[in-house]
Write a structure and sequence with these properties.
193 residues; 67% helix
């Protein structure tokens, strides 16, 4: 995407959002490398044993984004925030499927060749994170957007500030609060239920 001006991507996003199927088809090659980096960053934070590959996550997220009835992306940052949200939803859905009784519930697969005692972070961690983020979004929608842009979309504080129309110090102050808020919710079992 480095060889294309950012305005081209924004124009393609607007055209795809207006229902232009050709623009949607041309959009994926323009944003694919950035979406793949975003997916790899999200996958690196998932527990071991995840069977979803970054490429599959990118394709599933892209299909969800362009498959909506009326996608409306106002900017490149807005598109990547929507992509990050779609990836989050896909990963949470996968964690729920893996945790369901039909899929073995709490039982874990063990490769006999690698059968050494180890502690694996449970899929419930992702579900707990999703629940905590939902609570944050309900309490303060802007802080929820900051998490989506910083954590899930991988934007810097400066890019997040520009996307939300606030100052960088505001983003940094909110980010400190968000991290403390989420840490408190995720580390105290009484507050996460």
């Amino acid at each position: 995407m480095a060889d294309r001006p950012e305005g081209t991507v924004t124009q393609m996003l607007k055209a795809a959002g207006a229902g232009d199927a050709r623009a949607a088809a041309e959009l994926l090659p323009l944003v694919y490398s950035e979406l793949r980096q975003l997916a790899q960053a999200r996958m690196a934070k998932t527990p071991p044993g995840n069977t979803l590959q970054p490429t599959a996550l990118v394709h599933e997220a892209f299909l969800r984004l362009v498959g909506t009835d009326q996608p409306s992306w106002h900017s490149r940052g807005h598109f990547f925030a929507a992509a990050a949200q779609a990836m989050r939803q896909i990963l949470v859905e996968q964690a729920r499927r893996k945790a369901s009784a039909k899929r073995g519930g709490g039982h874990k697969r063990v490769d006999l060749e690698l059968a050494e005692p180890f502690i694996e972070p449970p899929a419930e961690d992702l579900l707990a994170l999703d629940e905590a983020l939902t609570r944050l979004e309900q309490a303060d929608p802007r802080k929820g957007k900051i998490v989506m842009l910083r954590y899930f979309a991988g934007l810097t504080a400066e890019e997040t500030a520009a996307a939300l129309g606030v100052s960088v110090p505001t983003i940094e102050r909110d980010w400190r609060f968000i991290r403390t808020f989420l840490y408190t919710l995720l580390s105290d079992p009484k507050t996460s239920s």
